[in-house]
Amino acid sequence: MENNFHMDSAEQPNAPVPTSDSLPLAAESPAATPASVGTAATAISGTSSDAFTPRTDLSALSRHADAIRAELGKVIVGQRDLAELLLTALLADGHVLLEGVPGVAKTLTAKLLARTLSVPFSRLQFTPDLMPSDVLGTSVFRPQKGEFEFRPGPIFASVVLIDEINRAPAKTQSALFEVMEERQITQDGVRYPLPAPFVVLATQNPIEQEGTYRLPEAQLDRFLFKLSVGYPTVEEEIAILQGHHAGFGGTPLEAVKPVVSADELRQLREQVGRQHVEPKLLEYIARLVGQTRAHKGLYLGASPRASLALLNGAKALAALRGRDFITPEDIQYLAPVVLRHRIQLTPEREMEGGTPDDVVKQILQSVDVPR
Question: CA–CA separation, 72 vs 110, rounded Å?
């Protein structure tokens, strides 16, 4: 079978020049991203310039985050909120599912983020005939040695981009369960750890259903965030057209350089893990997630993994915004992107036109905010 992937490295300057199918179409305006949260999004918007002096020195984290944003800005127009949430997931050591119609730069954004990190990168194009061994690797018999030797697959990289993840059948999807949760694979009874850091960035098209397979709930639960990438504003699309007319703005993908090493990312993640969290905020997270299990409009609520995702994500978001402590607004801002793929509406609620984001908004309004 023909391979459906290619290997690359964030340190190599040979990324392909984008075609018209992968134009850097910017995402929606700040009010429309990351989850159409509405009031929760606006409530947090002012926290990035808090007057508090942090007890932890976050200057290195801010410097690296700004460097990544600057590199992304060389090619991408807009998408500020998307970039912030991708950085949040990166610092929280979580995987991200990017959902959007074709042409809104899901794949391009993921590739550019990988290029800003000095770590190995690989890309897999999921297809209906893809087998688990095409992803994980396989054992090859070596006649000279008279034994089998494991040949690693493309999953053995630090940043793995999976394009059209919902096009592979359940057998291949299940091969990702151990990889995404335990950062290892088990082949012929032998454990093979993956490189650190390890992040999966997956894309899918929510509209086209032909030739696709619904992702299992167990796999969806392993994604830290599900981000909806929408259309750009008129002003952003004009800027895209101007840049493309001028020859992609004179900035090919090779201009995006690695600015963060694996060791630096590890240190930043350790710093994020030490963020201060009040006990009442831990209770707030537990109550929010617990309400998804009792809501009348849902037949599947979120698991404790969602609570951990909210906690880790809020720590990273607070650090990105210059604080060494989290606030209720951090939790509210991230609740939709953490919960929308972990809950399932009842058939009646779906027929009424409800969405998971609507339910999350109701839950946020129903749970008392700690003060």
Answer: 10
Backbone φ and ψ of 367, nearest 5°: -95, 130
Parallel, antiparallel or unpaired: strands 298-300 and 344-345: antiparallel
Rounded (to 5) percent helix, strand, coil in the chain:
45, 15, 40
Q: What is this structure's pTM?
A: 0.81
Domains of the chain, with CATH numbers? 5-366 (3.40.50.300)
Average pLDDT in the 39-67 region? Answer: 64
pLDDT > 90? residue 86 = yes
Check: CB of residue 162 under 8 Å from CB of residue 223: no
Q: Which of 277, 234, 274, 225 is nearest to 98 (CA)?
A: 225
Burial class (CB in 10 A: 0-12, 13-18, 19+), 190: exposed
Q: How many CB atoms lie within 10 A of CB 279?
A: 8
Bridge partner list, 224: none
Helix extents (H) in 162-222:
170-174, 176-182, 217-220
Each residue of 306-355: pLDDT tens digit?
999 999 999 999 999 999 999 999 999 999 999 999 999 999 998 988 89
CA distance 24 to 107: 10
Give the DSSP H or E segment for 148. strand 147-152
- Residue 209: CB atoms within 10 Å: 10
Q: Are strands 159-163 and 120-125 parallel, antiparallel or unpaired?
A: parallel
d(CA 292, CA 213): 25
pLDDT over 80 at 302, yes or no: yes
